[in-house]
Amino acid sequence: MSDTTITRAASDKQAKKFNIGRLLLEGRAFFALILIIAVFSVMSPNYFTVGNFLIMSSHVAIYGLLSIGMLLVILNGGIDLSVGSILALAGVSAGAMMQGIELQALGVILYPPVWAVVVLTCVLGALVGAVNGVLISIFKVPAFVATLGVMYVARGIALLMTNGLTYNNLSGRAELGNTGFGWLGFNRIAGIPISVLVLAAMAIIAGLMLSRSSFGRWLYASGGNERAAELSGVPTRRVKITVYTLSGILSAIAGLVLSSQLTSAGPTAGTTYELTAIAAVVIGGAALTGGRGTIRGTMLGAFVIGFLSDGLVIIGVSSYWQTVFTGAVIVLAVLMNSLQYGRGTRKS
Amino acid sequence: MSPETPVPDARPDLQEVVLAARNVAKSYGNVHALKGVNFDIHRGQVTTLFGENGAGKSTLMKVLSGVIQPTSGEIILDGQPVSFGNAADARDRGISIIHQELSLAPNMTVRDNIFMGREIRTATGVDFAEEERQTRKLMEDLEEDIDPLTPVEELRLGQQQIVEIARALSVNSRILIMDEPTSALSASEVEVLFKVIRDLTARGVSIVYISHHLEEALTITDHAVVLRDGNMTAYAPRAEIDLEWIVRNMVGENYDLGSPPEGHEMGGVALSIRNLSVPDASGVDLVDGMSLDVRAGEIVCIYGLMGAGRTELLEAIAGRLHATGGEIVLDGREVSHLSIGERIARGLALVPEDRQRDGLVQTMSVGQNLSLASIRNFTRGLFTQTQAERALIDSSIREVTVKTDGPDAPIGSLSGGNQQKVVIGKILATKPRVIMLDEPSRGIDIGAKAEVFRLLAEGAKQGLAVLYSTSEVGECLSVAHRIIVMHKGHISAEFDSTVTKEEIMAASGESVAA
Questions:
Q1: How many whole angstroms separate alpha carbon B122 and alpha carbon B22?
Q2: pLDDT, tens digit (0-9, with 9 covering 90-100), for B84-118
Q3: Which chain A positions have a beta carbon within 8 Å of B372's beta carbon?
Q4: How confident is the model at residue A345 (pLDDT cuts 50, 70, 90)?
Q5: Using CA of residue B228, residue B234, residue B238, residue B243, what is the dihedral sign?
Q6: What is the rounded distance in angstroms from the CA atom of residue A318 to the CA atom of residue A330?
Q7: Is pLDDT of A167 > 70?
Q8: Mean pLDDT value across chain A
Q9: SUPFAM superfamilies of this UniProt entry (chain B) (predicted)?
């Protein structure tokens, strides 16, 4: 008994000594964001303005939505490479629906209202995500390979649908009753872009789901140790299919927001966005091995990447340098993740 | 330690002893696997190490073969103190080890496995022809008809063990450590192995032998050493000992893990297994048509050696493994078609054998691990009720007496015994009718063991049906009302709590050469 008290006292002392280092390490994404804002504010007078923050945030919204889905998948111990392609497929599908769906057998062209377009696009995203989930959980295809395949297939279908072209007119026509697609990308409520509000809403919903629902607990458990979770009665297959489906839905929402912001839907949109989303999740402190990570961290990660690259544009740094900086930040983040988690791991 | 515990000479006899350990200790955090052990390996003879699971046998062998480094103490080779940096270091000095767990690459051929890491090189690459010739020779010596070019994954387990043995023989070691080499071998293969061992000792090779088959080990050994709880408790030459001596020293005298709870009313049959069969991947039945009843308030112990089918039986009842035939009836209702989660909801749950791999989620806190299996019970609508969860966690920590800094402490900060109590607490929180525990005392110290069995006894008094398995005979004679001995997928004997250790061991096949 005396043994344990001594070691505990010793470790308390140690804990106090490392407190500041520990705080910096655990809040690293937050401090990195503060640092980025401070540096760019000094370098450019235009950076630290409400208007600029709102514009930058509407850029972050796209990555942010994708990275919420990516976080869910990574918490489960998987990876989803198909989010960028689902984003493009969703945008193109929405574009096609806005142009009208021709039913040749009936000889009519349907112009669904915008709300129906949004719902159908989300359903499409969910279906593609569910394909990922079924491949991975039931057919035991490794997540990397399954989503890599779906990434190609979804991108290919998007290209086929438009023959490689881009839908430029998404505004709809008043006489057909399908106007309003630009609302997602352009309108503001109380001065805040809708896209940012959508991101905030999704982040809050996902955050509550992770911290307060039993599904959230199941997700953390099956990502941390799937065998133990299964033996505790967690329906691990269902959890897996659900996270990939949710990732698909969030990618579809991101696709809608992006094509609304651009007022066009192209089949090559969102190329390599999956990598940015993974980077945001990693910078946010999630472990790629699963079971560790938070929405708060992931959101900070998304803002770090977004504010950094927009800041570099504002101060006029070459886009080639942006790539180098982003890469350096990712490597640094992974390094700190292994510092945080590596020490605690015990021999099993 | 009892006063008559023998102590080998501080300086080992150079003529007699080739490798010796003096005061070797090894700790993992707060767990002391070895507590200052002295051990001699006799030149050109077989020295057998006896001890129950967790006594420290494998740890000691890993220290002697350089796989792990001791926390303190000395290793003396031919009278000179040595320290091995790694296993290759020890191998270069003529010490090799056959591990209990096979360490073969299943995708590679027998030849490539035997020469892995020390390929015969020529100017133009590897000399496969020479490797193949030597492999063929080794297989002939072992009287095993295995082609050197067969991939290891196509061999059955016993043959894989032969390959493992051949690999150790091929390096011409002076000292060969065999950790449970016969656990998957057939009787005739064991015969051949013993012949090879006698040949080796005749050539001056020193053997260290570890086996749970006590009588089998007695036929081959020249010296016996017994470990218990990380201490050496006895050593003697073969001529002076018998089976009873080994069992007495292995198990110890004052080994009180409680007695079967009495004075409560036993209920009806809570769990009933009829004709259950569980096949392995290749279709061989690991559990072969077993039938078993456990009543509410009753504690039943399943005793058996490694490979007897205990784990498979319990995992099939819990729903982890698929049973090919038979019925699992819980409170009169068939549950075979239900998922693990549904069985837990009906009151049938398993505490798995390997708590690191199957029991705990290492990334979660103590509290989250405790509430994991019962999280559905305090979910109202969409969200979990934080208050209710907290109350459950607090009462669980008290009930199973987990020593922790609090519910938010990481699970990895707990000692092995406390981690095990968390796994048991997690299952108890689901309010089971029947609780199954697979080797509940694996890798935990004697104090924690006693507490685990006290928990089982208390549960039984409140009407819980308890079914636990063990490979330590002392644990059968603790709280169990009834002891079932399993051997190769069958029930080989059934006893009440008045049985002796020797009777149980005899029924398990431990004292009968398999």
A1: 42
A2: 888 888 888 888 888 777 788 888 999 999 888 88
A3: 217, 221, 228-229, 232, 234
A4: very low
A5: negative
A6: 19
A7: yes
A8: 87
A9: P-loop containing nucleoside triphosphate hydrolases
Q: Which two tokens stand for residue B115?
A: 């020469």
> Strands B121-122 and B125-126, how do they pair?
antiparallel
From A322, A335, A340, select the one nearest A36 (Cα to Cα): A322
Say what the pLDDT of residue A276 is. 92
Measured CA to CA in angstroms, residue B192 lies from B186, B198, B219 at distances of 10, 10, 13
pLDDT value at residue B255: 54
Left (φ > 0), alpha (ψ -120 to 50) or beta: where does B347 sit?
Answer: left
Interface test with B, best of A74, A214, A238 (most B CBs within 10 A): A214
The two structure tokens encoding residue B375: 């999280």
Closest chain B C-alpha to A341 CA, distance in angstroms: 10
The Cα B487–Cα B476 span in angstroms is 15
> Could you read off the pLDDT of A116-164 as tens digits, one per residue?
999 999 999 999 999 999 999 999 999 999 999 999 999 999 999 988 8
Distances (CA, A) of B429 to A143, B354, B375, B396: 34, 20, 10, 7
Q: What is the pLDDT of residues B436-470, one digit of tens each?
A: 999 888 767 667 788 889 889 999 999 999 999 98
Nearest CA among A193, A90, A227 for reference residue B354: A227
The pLDDT of residue A307 is above 50: yes
Question: Considering CB atoms only, which of A221, A227, A344 is closest to B364?
Answer: A221
C-beta atoms of B341 and A234 within 8 A = yes
- Nearest chain A residue to B385 by CA: give it: A212
DSSP B195-223: HHHHHHHHTT-EEEEE-S-HHHHHHH-SE
List, in order of start, the domains of chain A with CATH numbers. 46-339 (1.10.3470)
Q: What is residue B393's three-state secondary structure?
A: helix
> Do A214 and B379 make contact, defined as CB atoms within 8 angstroms?
yes
Tokens 């061992």, located at residue: B197
Task: Give how far B237 is from chain A: nearest CA, Å.
Answer: 37
Report the phi/psi class of residue B73: left, alpha or beta, with left for phi > 0 and alpha for psi in -120 to 50: left
Quick one: closest CA in A to B321, which residue?
A231
Interface test with B, best of A209, A227, A232, A237 (most B CBs within 10 A): A232
* Burial of A344 per CB tally in 10 Å (0-12, 13-18, 19+): exposed
C-alpha B28/C-alpha B54 separation (Å) is: 13
- According to the model, what pLDDT value does residue B1 have? 38
> What token pair was written down for A71?
């976080």
Q: Do A233 and B340 touch (CB under 8 A)?
A: yes
C-alpha–C-alpha distance, residues B190 and B124, integer Å: 40
Give CA–CA dist B437/A342, Å, rounded: 32
What ipTM goes with this model? Answer: 0.81
- For residue B514, pLDDT over 70 is answered with no
Q: pTM of the full predicted structure? A: 0.78
Total residues belonging to chain A: 348
- Which domains does chain B show, CATH number per domain? 1-93+205-252 (3.40.50.300), 95-172 (no CATH), 267-347+433-514 (3.40.50.300), 364-431 (no CATH)
Please list, in sequence order, all residues whose beta carbon lies within 8 angstroms of the beta carbon of residue A272, skipping any fewer than 6 positions away: A84
CB contact under 8 A, B364 and A220: yes
B438 sits in which H/E element: strand B434-438
The amino acid at residue B445 is: D
DSSP-H helix ranges across B320-385:
340-346, 366-371
CB contact under 8 A, B430 and A344: no
CB contact under 8 A, B361 and A225: yes
- Residues in chain B within 8 Å Cβ distance of A348: 356-357, 362
